[in-house]
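Quick check before the chapter quiz. The format below is the same one you will see on the exam, so make sure you can read both the input and the output lines.
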Amino acid sequence: MTTQNATHHHPPHGTNVALGTFNVPKATFVPLGSAGERAGGLGGVTAVLGEGAAGNDLSGEFPADGIAAVHAAGLLTATVAEEDGGAGLGVAGQCRVLAALGEGDPSVALIAAMTLFSHAKQANGRFWPAELYSRVLDESAVRPTLLNAVRVEPDLGSPARGGLPRTIARRTSDGWAVSGHKRFATGAEGLAYFLVWAVTDEPVPRVGTFAVPGGSPGIEVRRTWNQLGLRASGSHDVVFTDAAGHLVEATEAAAATRQDNLAVGRMALPLAAIYLGVGRAAQRYFHRFAHERVPANLGRPVATTERFAQAAGEIEVLLSGAEELLFGVAERLDRGEPVPRTRALGARVVADRQTRAAVELAVRLLGNPGLSQDNPLERHFRDIQCAGVHAPQEDVALHAIGRAVLAP
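Here is the expected output.
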């Protein structure tokens, strides 16, 4: 797989954002079978992302080259429905893709995930106006066309905990004008469309999603993302001031005050797979260190010691167990089996715990070298801390699962 260089210009703080230009070849979908992976499919994308991950983490800039590589592999549109000309990738396929991307660069993986989820939702429910979605697909054929549902607000917090947005969509003569302040808009500086959650100003208010093109006037990206991990995900604040938008879907506001946190299984599993990929990257470095480290008092690699062998076994059990759980539940969903809604959300909780435990064990075994910025394990340790921040967070997930299993 080859990609050309991509450039993306970042606005200074407090200016209106204007999309940069991605120079990439036409996308070609990467096969997802093991043979394809061995032939340089997903494994090739992982390797390309891995080459830029450390630099992206250090700079915190939008990872345009990585996104271009994912686009060139045809992965940004892998969940587009087959009737729309896509691959119609299911939940298990999304898990495999995002685990591979997460192993290379989880910041790129998270940005890509938001686009994959948007196309998957459209494939399952047909929410977008046909003409607008057709335009999105036409754009996606020639360049990375990133989508993200931006919902979190400074006062509201995460919608997973209930409440309505303060962002307002006002009807105009030719559409809608959207005004409000959103937080944690992953990939904000490269989004082709912000899918903004807002309340209408109608006599009977509705709450819904409005597609605001990324290059529109009235969009201000505030570069507030300065987190411990996933530093290149660009999950900045965005302020909309009468930005022109298109209504995608809406329902009566009174019916949308509380999110159904058990209804997110189709996203929860692939999100957890991103961090499974981080765990595999950490494991790879742990193995490398174990084989290369030869203490003078030992005279042989630490990989030959009982302590490191036992730790390597524990790490593999944790990661393979998380993998079997995520992919197993995902494959059941794809087969249409009656999987309890608590099962997918619970699988994400367990998988997140196990991948974090695996990476933390690797860091403990290495001691001081494990926390040195001179090797990738320190970065993997920081990135894995982000596993639990995605909505619904663990306490909300456990509460929803508990209420469901205690119901008479």
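If your answer matched, good. The chain is about 45% helix and 15% strand.
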